[in-house]
Design goal:
The structure holds two protein chains of two kinds. Chain A is of the alpha/beta class. Chain A has 19 helices and ten strands. The longest helix of chain A has 25 residues. Classes of the chains: A alpha/beta, B mainly alpha.
Chain lengths: ~475, ~350
């Protein structure tokens, strides 16, 4: 009766989707954008809705229809659960640390019991349960998404231009020379082949890791698993590297022997595409209903022109990879797709509130093209300036005879500090303007928080309203 | 005109001139921007800037303009003169009579001036309220920071003078954070304090409308109906305006009533059609039972519509699509009330009609 169970399962899945009682939210963003903190805070806010009134813009709580919420185990048992308690503890404990960065995929599921609003649905049942699923995964892996569209040769070309940038050159000089000295025509046999590949690939990965530790980087050229291998650590699939030799890139690669070094590399790259990237996105992102893309605009503003350009390009490429489209109920039954996308700039608690508008506008200009592309598919796109855990509070001081709105927080050294980050631009900047830009955004320590109280936040209620608010019907 | 491309360098006169012009235009733009931020006139200005309109109102003749002021002055003068003569004549006959009449006259003058003064104050309040509406509406469109709070405080103070909204205000205070921008603040205020007031107002409108409907349905004389409508309507407007913190006196209420009726006439065609449909439905159903009942429902709906428009005029923030009160909310209770009356009348005692 296996087929029977299966079809019952399938039918109940379809039923669930048809009645819309599940919503899967993908929290996307490059590493360091604050995905884990956002998820922790979102769960925290939802869990406190019944007892507190801290989400004025979430309609369902405003109408007092949300009765209770609970963090439950999810049905996909092969995915680890999101370590909510651990993350919350690390924020509220006396040591006050941000949650450690994610190294593997995880899933959180929150069940929300609410009273039905719709008159007709109400005749069937008073209460309903909405399952909210939120996926967390290392942001580095997101960088792999655009690679799906590139062949090995195209990727190698991209890497050549990527590595030739000034700030990267000093890190990769030696490995570039090693790769240049390789003879790609030569056929090697095992175990010599694996040894060589592994040796060069390790060197290549180490250079990049060292570079990324010291610099902020948003480019897509490197495979995400090079930086964060997860369960693939040491697996031969990661032992490949781009061809950086100009002469070889000019050649027609079809003429190479099947057992040549070059073909071996290409095979591994293809394998990586097929067996690592594609399953990952198929499994975790094809069922997504709503998406939020986090952008750390603060650090871009500090990093300068080059980082800005790279991030802009990366966001465009990233959003191309997701399947968008208006999900009407018929379409949702068969091919779920994202119908709402929020692009949020995070960590705005470090800026005075009167500049939130500026940073939102600045980010909006940065993602305008991507937003337009996505909007063309009929997806509702919204931008917002948010903060998952507010670490500061706004204060007004007087500076040179004028009122100045600043933020007050606890500095890293434990002393209270009042900070004015400078005037945040609200429009695109030319290269010269970037050079003149004087902005200093200091991180503040997490304030002392009580673990039973909801975390302080900025506009998470609006985020929740946009992402899942309409599902509480 | 030249066909060839020309380059101006920094030392060239043309370059300097172009720069100067650019700076001037930029300065002008800056001025415009900064005057934009002066809120008071913003919305009306920007809204009107791309409208086509008749420039000069056709002027009334100067003599015609003089009519009302001169008449008023003449009447006042004549009355004063007559009163003076009257009192002095009484004084000459007996001093007590004269003093009594003089005292009475003074009371009339003082109380009259006072009521004029309060009327003037109420009118100013209404005007101020209209301005606040405009300001808040302009802020809502702008995504600014730090401008709404003062206006909201002012509005709230005015409301609190007449209505006790402490629990609602506390809710607002508790929800608002310093990080909220103007738009969010206004929205929160609208969702807490104004929402509560709206609910009370709709209840009030329903009460007055159903009462009026019942009265008209039961009144034996058609001539009384009109007086009833006027009486109930003015009572309702008075109470509603007080609820929203801009109470209107008799003198001011006339102005307000004028505004309400104007609004009712100007209400969008679609709204009218929808309302008419509702009324029609309500009427035909009951009209088969009784014409008087149908008239009652008609009057009730009229009062209800007047009430909703009064809310629109007095509310510090214009309604948006979602929180706009609808006639259908009131219609149901009017209809059921009149139906109940008819049932009682026909069911128990045949000679029910008052």
């Amino acid at each position: 009766m296996d087929w029977f169970d299966k079809s019952v399962d399938k039918a109940s899945q379809l039923w669930q989707r048809g009645f819309d009682r599940k919503v899967r939210v993908a929290v996307t963003g490059l590493s360091g954008a604050g995905k884990t903190a956002l998820i922790t805070s979102l769960i925290n806010q939802l869990l406190h809705t019944a007892s507190h009134n801290q989400l004025p813009f979430l309609e369902v709580t405003e109408e007092q229809r949300l009765k209770a919420t609970r963090l439950t185990a999810h049905q996909e048992l092969h995915i680890p659960a999101f370590p909510y308690e651990k993350n919350l503890n690390s924020i509220t404990e006396p040591s006050r640390q941000w949650p450690s960065s994610t190294t593997n995929i995880s899933l959180a599921q929150i069940n929300c019991r609410y009273s039905v609003k719709n008159k007709w649905l109400k005749t069937f049942r008073e209460d309903s349960v909405l399952r909210v699923e939120i996926i967390d995964y290392p942001g580095e892996w997101l960088l792999d998404l655009p690679l799906l569209q590139l062949s090995f040769k195209e990727w190698s070309r991209l890497c050549v231009s990527y590595l030739s940038s000034q700030r990267r050159q000093q890190y990769v000089k030696s490995v570039t020379e090693t790769i240049h000295s390789l003879r790609f025509h030569l056929g090697l046999v095992e175990p010599e082949l694996s040894a060589t590949l592994s040796e060069v690939a390790t060197e290549y990965r180490q250079c990049l890791t060292r570079y990324r530790q010291e610099h902020l980087d948003y480019s897509v050229a490197l495979p995400g698993r090079f930086i964060l291998p997860g369960e693939l650590k040491g697996a031969p699939v990661l032992d490949f590297f781009p061809v950086l030799n100009h002469d070889i890139l000019e050649l027609d690669w079809d003429t190479f022997e099947e057992d040549s070094l070059l073909k071996q590399l290409e095979n591994r790259y293809d394998y990586y595409q097929k067996k690592v990237i594609r399953p990952f996105f198929d499994e975790y992102f094809s069922n997504v209903d709503r998406q939020i893309l986090l952008v750390d605009t603060n650090s871009v503003l500090e990093a300068g022109y080059e980082a800005y350009q790279e991030l802009q390009k990366t966001i465009e490429q990233l959003l191309q990879g997701f399947s968008y489209g208006r999900s009407n109920w018929l379409k949702r039954l068969f091919a779920p797709s994202i119908d709402r996308l929020m692009i949020a700039t995070t960590k705005v608690d470090l800026l005075p509130p009167d500049q939130h508008r500026a940073i939102e506008a600045f980010m909006q200009k940065m993602v305008a093209q991507a937003q337009n592309d996505v909007g063309y598919d009929g997806v509702e796109v919204k931008t917002m300036a948010i903060s998952s855990v507010a670490t500061t509070e706004p204060v007004t001081t007087e500076h040179e005879g004028q009122q100045l709105l600043c933020v007050k927080g606890e500095g890293i050294d434990g002393q209270p500090v009042i900070h004015y980050p400078g005037r945040i631009p609200d429009k695109r900047l030319s290269r010269e303007m970037w050079e003149q830009l004087d902005i200093d955004i200091t991180e503040c320590a997490i304030p002392k928080l009580v673990s039973d109280e909801p975390l302080p936040h900025v506009r998470l209620d609006k985020v929740l309203q946009f992402l899942i608010g309409d599902k509480f019907r | 005109m030249s066909d060839k491309p020309i380059k101006f360098h920094k030392d060239d006169k043309a370059y300097q001139k172009a720069e100067k012009l650019l700076n001037e235009s930029l300065a002008a733009e800056d001025n415009r921007v900064s005057s934009d931020s002066e809120l008071a006139t913003l919305s009306s200005e920007s809204a009107d800037s791309n409208k086509v309109f008749i420039k000069n109102k056709p002027k009334k003749g100067r003599l015609k303009q003089l009519f009302w002021p001169s008449l008023t002055v003449f009447v006042l003068f004549a009355a004063g003169y007559e009163a003076y003569q009257f009192i002095s004549r009484l004084l000459s006959s007996h001093w007590l009579l004269g003093w009594g009449a003089g005292l009475l006259a003074t009371t009339v003058v003082v109380s009259g001036v006072y009521s004029l003064y309060t009327g003037w104050k109420a009118r100013r309040r209404l005007k101020k309220r209209q301005q606040q509406q405009k300001q808040l509406q302009a802020i809502l469109l702008k995504n600014s920071y730090g401008q709404a709070d003062a206006i909201i405080q002012e509005v709230n103070q005015e409301i609190e003078e007449f209505t006790s909204v402490e629990p609602l205000r506390d809710k607002y205070q508790q929800r608002k954070r310093q990080v909220h921008n103007d738009q969010e603040l206004i929205q929160i205020y609208s969702d807490t304090v104004l929402k509560g007031l709206d609910k009370m107002a709709v209840d009030m409108v329903t009460k007055h409308a159903t009462e009026a409907a019942a009265m008209v349905a039961l009144s034996p004389l058609s001539a009384v109906d009109m007086a009833l409508v006027a009486w109930r309507g003015s009572r309702m407007i008075e109470q509603l305006s007080q609820l929203y913190g801009c109470p209107q006196t008799v003198l001011g209420r006339l102005e307000m009533t004028k505004k309400v009726f104007k609004n009712m006439m100007l209400a969008g065609a679609s709204e009218l059609v929808a309302d008419a449909g509702v009324e029609f439905l309500g009427k035909t159903l009951t009209a088969t039972i009784s014409t008087k009942a149908a008239q009652g429902i008609g009057v009730g709906l009229l009062i209800a519509r007047m009430g909703l428009q009064t809310m629109n005029v007095c509310r510090p923030l214009e309604f948006d699509k979602e929180n706009k009160p609808k006639l259908s909310q009131v219609r149901k209770s009017i209809y059921s009330k009149v139906k109940g009356l008819i049932k009682n009348a026909t069911g128990s005692v045949p000679e029910k009609k008052k």
